[in-house]
Amino acid sequence: MERRALGRTPFKVAPLAFGGNVFGWTIDEPTSFRLLDAFVGAGFNLIDTADSYSRWAPGNAGGESETIIGRWLARRGNADDVVIATKVGSDMGLGFKCLRKDYIVRAVEDSLRRLQVDAIDLYQSHWDDDKTPLEETLEAHAQLLRQGKVTAIGASNLSAERLSEALEVSRRKGIPRYETLQARRRYPCARRADRYRPVFRASTRSGR
Predict the structure, then answer these.
(1) N or C: which end of the chain has fewer CB within 10 A?
(2) pLDDT in tens, 193-202
(3) Is pTM beyond 0.85 here?
(4) Which residues form the catalytic set?
């Protein structure tokens, strides 16, 4: 299976990720294990989840997907051949999306515990939080990187404009930048590419 560099992170990933929002929702734990085994057995290695998966399902509180992935990793006894990406910032009971520093540094501990790992490979801001300064959010991620609790950081569902702002904050303040992006699903693929291409080009030229 071909592996591609994941931005400037230390990871190389196959060109297809397994979205873990179904774990603990439409798929039970034994089925989740079988699917993950088959996915990795076929040569793929990127597994994506979020702390909020699957809070929307009746009886769930969030964290179900991370918990199942953590149990799968523990059963395998090896996490080195997979890349685990999770996210922070969705509503986990506060009633709003949150990327405050104090919230992120608490939330990462819950994700580490559920995933049963010492460090999260890719930790992503799940949604934009326009009530929290980008600098505060990025400084929280920088702290986690320094502490070795995460290996790389990324963004999800940021508009091209907000991504550009975040990259500029990182450049100006000399703090780690978002290295990956999960773009919004509401745009067709071609339109998404058109919206983000200028940001990616500017980032590559400037080294931001």
Answers:
(1) N
(2) 566 555 545 5
(3) yes
(4) 53
